Amino acid sequence: MSKLRVVHYINNFFAGVGGEEKADIPPQARDGVVGPGLALSKALGEEAEIVGTIICGDSYFGENTKSAKEEMLKLIEMYNPDIFVAGPAFNAGRYGFACGEMATFIEEELQIPVVSAMYKENPGVDMFKRDMHIIETEISAADMRNAVPKMAKLVLKLAKGEEVGSPAEEGYHERGIRVNYFHEKRGSERGVGLLVKKMNGEECVTEYPMPVFDRVDPLPAVADITKVKVAIVTSGGIVPQGNPDRIESSSATKYGIYDISGMNDLSADDFMTVHGGYDRAFVTENPNLVVPLDVMREMEQEGVIGELANYFVTTTGTGTSVGNAKGFGEHFARKLVEDGVGAVILTST
Amino acid sequence: MVKEVERAGIPVVHLATVVPISLTIGANRIVPGIGIPYPLGDPTLGEVKSKKIRRSIVEQALTALQTEVDGQTVFEM
Amino acid sequence: MRLELGKIKITDVQPGEVTKVENGTLFVNKQELIDLAMKDDRIKGVKVEFARPGESVRIAPVKDVIEPRVKVSGTGAMFPGMINKVKTVGSGRTHALVGANVITCGKIVGFQEGIIDMSGPTAKYTPFSETFNVCIVIEPVDNLETHDYEQAARLAGLKIGALVGEAGRNVEPDEVVVYETKPIAEQTAQYPNLPKVGYIHMLQSQGLLHDTFYYGVDAKQMVPTFMYPTEIMDGAITSGNCVAPCDKVTTFHHLNNPVIEDLYKRHGKDLNFIGVILTNENVFLADKERSSDMVGKFVEFLGLDGVIITEEGYGNPDTDLMMNCKKSTEAGAKVVLITDEFPGRDGKSQSLADAVPEADTLVSCGNGNVIVEFPPMDKVIGTLDYVETMIGGYEGSLRKDGSIEAEIQIIIASTIANGYNTLSAKMY
Amino acid sequence: MTNIVLVTNNSVVQEKFGEKLDVNHLPQATYLETLEVVRDKIHAGHKLLTHPLSGSVKPNDTPYKTIVISKAKGTLDYDGLGIIEESMASAQKFIAGRKTPQWTDKVKADFRLIDFTIISTAINSMDGKFIG
Fold first, then answer.
1. Does A162 share its domain with A260?
2. Which of A267, C103, D73, D100 could be cross-linked to D45 through a Cys-Cys bond (beta carbons 3.0 to 4.6 Å apart)?
């Protein structure tokens, strides 16, 4: 049997092409092994061979995600791979994002098995773990030696169509997929056992964790709103006419920040809604129904609030799909803090 | 998003039309909106009344921001 | 209330001139069964066929499964309020033909009934592949109204179950198990240092083909009530419903409720089993509020330290399950839920249609959306005509050679949400 | 019984209840669209009275759905809204996994009957009850 053909994706840093200052390099392909590919190649052993390595700067990828993916698809296709491996990205957020984006994209386009590896707090884990296997690593590249054999073992199993074990057995991040198995005891017996433990105050592990109710403790109240800068954030999809940033009508993957300085209300001539799913007629006629600029401007002038931020932040979806909303929530929250915003009114449709 | 804003240290009030969802996503200060097609106001009552409603909702939101809460709290209109 | 349950182990089923049990073999006079069923003029034809473990046999569409039992002593008779007078059961002595079952099949409405395979890779999903089954294939008179036919088939199954059960009346059981729960004051006093435990049994009660009966009362018309655990073993509860085949609680499963059995196993050792709270799963939200309020009230009144809650069906019963969980927790009990899961074919979606934070201890009876292959069988009891319209089946499910591709929810009791099976699901 | 509205895409419900009760019949609506109409009505202040997933027949099996809401409008029914939203998410999940098949007329008639029976037994049991 001929060897399985592997393409490996790494960023500029791991390719030895400079550090942050080179993070804007566009995609390039090199034949054979580069950087961590050496370890991977050893771990893959006789059964597979790294035929090519694709390198891209994380900033470049972040800023040109769509075109970068297309460019790299062309490069990768030339190697006619059986397997695609991305990373490990450890705790590098943008690298993790790139690995996840590339791996899921290649899996869909080329229908080949893919695998990556990241530290549990890498945002890429939450974004992509449902769609692919991501091996769990420690926080830094010091863990390379540990991570790479697990990646190799898993990707070979996937390539050969062998049964993949549980997250604990294979070392990947739990994907949230419910898989059947036969327990040695019947359900009722397990139930009684759990109840006895629970009543005794012993630890008992649920077989089906409820959706996570992630909570953040409430902040203290704003002492005096007349002295505070207030910003409006909306998930109601209000954007400038023409939707310049092309924010999606649902499951948005991005957000927009739009200037409102000098405006006394949100004019229907200048703004529209892209929110999908609901009757948009009323909001189309009057965007203030979602972004209450008219009344907040009045309040600013009356001194009811200290100041209104000169922009609002917008996206679509109330945030029930956690992944993206969390990601850009963290992102624009930083800007709000930097701009001295002291309170936020978040509106949802 | 609401949690990330709060985590970043900025008190946030969620004007939400679907309060159960707001509770699920973890907002701590919640003010119910009117309805999905028009969360802040009610254009079927005419522009003047609608704006009045919007103003009162925003005022309620400011009240919520200036109120101490222990956990998730819905500030009914 | 104290019940001696005599278990007569059945190891074969054969035709015979007299319906009787001899050396573990159940002999069945088929004509006797046919004549009994045909007394109902809504039934046009009846066939009786046997299905044994390991045989290349597929039974479809299955309506109900009834373990043959007979009341040997004590008040009342099997299935009170249904085929016998209303009289409290659950004490005295009862004999059960363990390992034998009466299975009713025959079309009803075309999608709500399931499959039992006696051998092959899918046999492991249903407990009835391991029992010796007397299958009653029922044909209704032409143009019979659906309600009527459902009722006729249901009663035929119960009557035949009781008739076959009579064969065990004078047979010495292989094993006698004694179950006893006393009135609350005495029961509490018997094990004063053990935590008091109850079982909240949610009965499917949504309407046609979604009904369960307690002493003949349609469960949707009752308010939650208290039941001694042994009552259920004499047929106080009978199944008149077909939800998805996979989580249907058949009459067999009521007679052999696994939660009750396993609670009794630790009764007096780790816990003090006080009894069963019966409640329903109604369509109106106000009914759900009322019933769960009353469940919470019972938990408080009985002073329960812990409860196990089981549901029947998917979707709106999840709401009842969560309400019962929350209110039982608020009433001071530790709660364990038993349920099955429907997270979609890729297994990635939410498994339940409702959730509360109090539901922190769950037992999973498996993912009903998993797709499996059913190889062709030599013999079909009933018909495969309805496979594609059954829940779990779909267009293209049934192939010309009689093989089937379908979700395991098409298999009777495969993910039954009372913990009867060992199937479970874990997170990958 | 004059204080309720039946939202349905089931013609049998319209036939049997149309004269006696307030039936909002949506003959062209899908299962999911029927749920959406109900969702919008809850936003408009009606109360959800029956569980949207009644029947336990899965949303990608039956094409028919009848849901009872209050005729009167009041403050937003949060619990009802939560239930309908979760039900819609659940229905979407099933339909995304496998679309509701193109059933034969016989099967459709059976599904209509099941839906009608569930809702009629529920309604018959609620006579005179407080639903507000």
1. no
2. D73
Three-state secondary structure call for residue C9 = strand
Residue D129 lies in a domain: no
Q: Of A177, A7, A6, A8, give the one whose Cα is nearest residue A89.
A: A8
Select the more confidently predicted residue: A140 or A232: A232
- Residue A30, burial from CB neighbour count under 10 angstroms (0-12, 13-18, 19+): middle
SS (H, E, C) chain D: CCCEEEEECCHHHHHHHCCCCEEEECCCCCHHHHHHHHHHHHHCCCCECECCCCCCCCCCCCCCCEEEEECCCCCCCHHHHHHHHHHHHHHHHHHHHCCCCCCCHHHHHHHHHHHHHHHHHHHHCCCCCCCC
How many domains, in total, are found in chain A? 2
Closest among A54, A69, A74 to A9, alpha carbons compared: A54
Task: Inspect the interface and report whether the beta carbons of A222 and B65 lie closer than 8 Å.
Answer: yes
Q: Would you place residue B8 in the very low, low, confident or very high pLDDT band (cuts 50, 70, 90)? A: confident
Residue A319: which pLDDT band, with cuts at 50, 70 and 90? very low
Domain, as residue range, for B39:
2-74
Whether A211 maps to a domain, the answer reads no
Q: CB-based burial of residue C165 (10 Å sphere; 0-12 exposed, 13-18 middle, 19+ buried)?
A: buried
How deeply is A86 buried, as exposed, middle or buried, from its count of CB atoms within 10 A (0-12, 13-18, 19+)?
A: buried
Cis bond upstream, residue A88 (ω within 30): yes
**A213 part of a folded domain:** no
> Nearest chain C Cα to D104, which residue?
C389
Domain that holds residue A47: 4-170
Contact list, A278 vs chain B (CB under 8 Å): 36-37
Q: Residue D67 and residue D35: Cα distance in Å, rounded?
A: 8
Mean pLDDT, residues B47-51: 93
What are phi and psi for residue D86, nearest 5 degrees?
-65, -35
Question: Where residue A326 falls among pLDDT bands split at 50, 70, 90?
Answer: low
Domain borders along chain C are 2-410
**Which partners does chain A have (≥3 C-beta pairs < 8 Å)?**
B, C
Catalytic annotation on C242?
A: yes
- The rounded distance, in Å, linking the Cα atoms of C340 and C425 is 9
- A302 and chain B in contact, CB less than 8 A: no
- Do D81 and B37 lie within an 8 Å CB cutoff? no
Amino acid present at C76? G
Tell me which residue has tokens 């890729």.
C346
Neighbours of chain B (3+ CB pairs under 8 A): A, D
Strands of chain A, DSSP E: 4-11, 28-31, 48-56, 83-90, 114-119, 133-137, 178-182, 229-234, 238-240, 256-259, 271-273, 307-314, 343-347
Number of Cβ within a 10 Å radius of residue A274: 21
- Select the residue from C206, C209, C223 to test the D interface by mutation, using most D Cβ atoms within 10 A: C206
- Candidates C32, C19, C37; CA nearest to C169 is C19
What pTM was estimated for this model as a whole? 0.79
Catalytic residue among C105, C242, C325, C365: C242
Looking at the 3D structure of chain B, how many domains does it have?
A: 1
Q: Which residues pair with C212 in a beta bridge?
A: C239
Question: Which residues of chain C does D111 touch, with a Cβ-Cβ cutoff of 8 Å?
Answer: 111
Tokens 């039309």 sit at which residue? B17
